[in-house]
Amino acid sequence: MNKLSRLKYFMTFGIWNREEHENGWCKRTGLNVVRKMYMAIRLFIERGHVDYATQLSFSTILAIVPIFAMIFAIGRGFGLSKYIETWLRSTLDSQPQAAESIISLADSYLQHAQTGLFIGIGLLFMLYSVLSLIYNVENVFNIIWQVERKRSVGRFLADNLSMMFLVPVIIIVMSGVSIIANTTTDHLQAFIILGPIARILVKLLPFVVLTLIFIALFVVMPNTRVKFSAAVGPAILAAILMLLVQWGYVHGQLFLSGYNAVYGSLAALPLFMLWMQISWYICLFCAELCYMNQYLDYYEYMISPKDISEANRRKIALLVMRHIIKRFSEGRPALTVLEIKQLTGIPIRLVCDALTRLEHVKLVTVVGNSKDEDTRYQPAQSLNHLRMGRIVELLDNDSPDRHKNNHIDISSTLNDEAAQEVRRAREEFIQKLDDINDL
């Protein structure tokens, strides 16, 4: 086996080999990191996030002036718009031309919005631009988290309009904290120990703020429950990558002097667009990493239900049903997907496939919120009616691929007498299965 074949085998099977009793903690942790990074990269490519990042970059550029116009308008209502300008300049200190352009355009937008017919149209366009961007971002995050059900219109408007008014307040508070931190640092310079510590803490402040922003984005944006612990690591990685991009942008200016000479004052726009595109790449990749933090077990061995035969799928469904019935008959809490996986040792994607089939034929029912990762399953019918023969018959009749592995389906070519014999034999088989009490 050559190196390429060994690498392919390792990425397909080796990294999913969970012999935890034989491996040390460091090796298990390292393999988990490799699994998550590999799956995040794979899903980032397979789900077309390069295209999504381009769409979101375009939507962001369209909405950025209305967004800051709204933020400045709310800030002026409190008499604190200068703090917002200071925060924007410090955030985009690597792109001062872009920061000044945004402030100038937002101020011009507000001035025109206060005169004539533009009052109503400008306000509607501003709200539409902001809500449209939020909707597009939420849609991409729902794709990442495989959430099919979107927020209702009422909930979407209520959540995001409240957030739109809360963001300026947060920015003002952050600006105030930054000013206080810098002032305190200046006063502590005379101290031998506290002075350097204060300088380090002030330098870490942008990293902490970025991390909190990404945590909020990863947890709040998808229309599903996201664990805080699953979002922390990807948020830290996203903050580090964003700061590295900003550092690279600043130091890359030395190599772009000819570029600035060609484009002049317009040079800031394509550079800003490039920065925006890379930022969305980072955001979406780390969102995929957050998803893998929470649902890595769902991709164990990368086995798909299509990779196994119909007979084996039926056996898995029977085994899953057996554990559900046993748990219900004992009067204990219903089983979750992860609990069934731990009891059976079957990869979780195959367990989910079996549960979907059993739910479709109305043999099991969902207990609790279907969006909850701790969804539980219990029998949907009386235990007296749940015999092996009945379950097998329902699964066979429901399967669209029951003739998939056959070269020819001869059932339609049999004469009446032969068809009756086949039907009688099947009924006897089902009856014998029904006589088995220990499912």
Please specify the SSE layout and strand pairing.
Layout: H1 3-12, H2 25-46, H3 49-77, H4 81-91, H5 96-113, H6 118-144, H7 153-187, H8 194-220, H9 228-252, H10 257-263, H11 268-295, H12 310-329, E1 335-336, H13 337-344, H14 348-360, E2 364-367, E3 376-379, H15 388-398, H16 416-434
Antiparallel strand pairs: 1-3, 2-3
Helix pairs in contact: 2-11, 3-4, 3-5, 3-6, 3-7, 3-11, 4-7, 7-8, 8-9, 9-11, 12-14, 13-14, 15-16
Briefly characterize the structure.
This protein is an all-alpha fold.
Unreliable sequence segments: 402-410
Categorize the overall geometry. Answer: elongated
The sequence of SSEs as H and E is: HHHHHHHHHHHHEHHEEHH
The overall strand count is 3
How much strand? Answer: under 5%
Taking the alpha carbons of the first and last residues, their distance comes to 44 Å
- Going across the major beta sheet, what is the strand order? 1-3-2
Output the number of helix runs: 16
Indicate how many domains the architecture comprises: 2
Biggest sheet details: 3 strands, antiparallel
Helix content: over 70%
Radius of gyration: 29 Å
Mean pLDDT: 77
Label the structural class.
Answer: mainly alpha
Note the quaternary state here.
single chain
Keywords: Cell membrane, Membrane, Transmembrane, Transmembrane helix
Main location: membrane
Transmembrane segments: 52-74, 117-135, 156-180, 200-221, 228-249, 261-287
Membrane topology: Multi-pass membrane protein
